[in-house]
Design goal:
The protein is α+β, with helices and mostly antiparallel strands and about 375 residues long. It has a domain of about 110 residues. The protein has eight helices and 17 strands. The strands form five sheets. Strands 1, 2, 5, 14, 15 and 16 form a six-stranded mixed beta sheet that branches. It has a five-stranded mixed beta sheet with strand order 8-17-13-9-12. Helix 1 packs across helix 3.
């Protein structure tokens, strides 16, 4: 291991150091990973000895940081967010407030132009939206005793946990754009916004889903008043409505009983909802955001993002993925030499890591969504 881990002066720079600030060749990273995972199958006592020797060196913590940084990015990047198909991807170059503009009337039918006639200026409506990104993060500390006793086991899943925290941040923040503690977010639903009504009180049934799809299609252009023909594409429900929604979206027949002068008669008909092409999104974060009594009966429709977006979410440019850094030790040996970050800080002997994400979002065009508080 002598050729892998060596003393370097980098740890003399006290404070948090990014895991991406250090460049190591692939061979060293691979060897460090093999030691961490004990892929060579060393006996427990030998592996523990090798680990104790490694963590006393200066650059091993940074090699370890590079490993967990790669594992975090791999887990985060392979995660497929189910909200992106109906969410506009935003980007911010800094922490200032940024603007988006929506022009209404551009897609209206073109008027007739007479021979040698003048092309008239179309009537356009302009709507401005603002958004900004903010820092979110967490510090993680593990005691030096745990590190020694567990032989790095305390860090065995730290990259997965950090990646999951970033994933959960995205899920929670996006859900909060259209939901709130009291139900559908009033910044997107509620009293008519721009003369548009996009909230109701219908339970999730086949008939009510058809009614809501039709209501979305009839949403008017705010300039001309013409129906925009918005097509609902995504049905978003809490876990409590998952099987109700799946039944509606997959059943081939609808059967009910007509009650007339005589006894009820079963009448089977075709269920045309599956032909509408709706895709189900079960959002487990809805009950975490919406704490009202109606959370388990509230459902949402969103249009395809290619047609228009009701919400937008994004990241600080150059920081689209979560970032890990570690804190260098603020103590030195009696000879004045810097000590490994794995020796912990001066006051507590704790080893510190920190994860950071820079995200933000906003509500956009309410015509491309509809909510029902069943």
């Amino acid at each position: 291991m002598e050729q892998i881990f060596q003393e370097t002066p980098s740890a003399a720079d006290l404070g948090f150091v990014s895991a991406r600030a250090f460049q190591f060749d692939e061979a060293r990273i691979e060897q460090a990973f093999r030691l961490l995972a004990n892929t060579d199958g060393m006996p427990r006592h030998r592996h523990r000895y090798m680990m104790e020797e490694a963590i006393t060196t200066t650059d091993f913590p940074y090699l370890f940081g590079a490993i967990i940084d790669r594992e975090l990015l791999a887990r985060y990047r392979t995660w497929t967010a189910d909200f992106w198909p109906f969410t506009r991807r935003l980007r911010a170059s800094n922490f200032n407030t940024h603007s988006l503009h929506r022009l209404d009337g551009l897609s209206d039918p073109l008027p007739l132009v007479a021979e040698k006639g003048e092309y008239l200026v179309g009537v356009l409506g302009d709507k401005r939206y603002t958004y900004s990104v903010k820092k979110r993060g967490r510090q993680i500390d593990i005691s030096w005793e745990s590190l020694i006793n567990d032989g790095m086991g305390a860090f065995s899943d730290i990259s997965n946990r950090m990646a999951d925290s970033a994933i959960n941040t995205d899920q929670f923040q996006v859900t909060s754009l259209y939901s709130s503690a009291t139900g559908p977010n009033v910044l997107l639903y509620g009293p008519p916004i721009d003369g548009i009504t996009n909230v109701g009180a219908l339970a999730l049934t086949i008939n009510n889903l058809q009614t809501t799809i039709e209501a979305m299609a009839e949403q008017p252009n705010p300039v001309t008043g013409l129906a925009m023909g918005v097509r609902a594409k995504y049905l978003v429900v809490p876990p409590a409505l998952e099987f109700t929604a799946r039944t509606i979206l997959t059943s081939g027949l609808v059967q009910w009983t007509e009650v007339g002068a005589g006894a009820g008669i079963p009448v089977p008909t075709s269920n045309v909802i599956p032909q509408a092409g709706l895709q189900l999104v079960v959002n487990p974060w809805l009950p975490q955001v919406d704490t009202s009594g109606n959370v388990n009966t509230t459902w949402y429709l969103f249009a395809d993002g290619m047609q228009g977006n009701a919400i937008g979410y994004g990241y600080l440019s150059g920081h689209e993925t979560p970032e890990i850094c570690m804190k260098s030790s603020d103590k030195v040996s009696v000879t004045g030499a810097p000590m490994s970050p794995f020796s912990g800080d001066f006051a507590t002997d704790n080893v510190f890591y920190r994860v950071r994400a820079v995200v933000g979002g906003t509500q956009l065009d309410p015509r491309f969504t509809y909510s029902q508080v069943g």
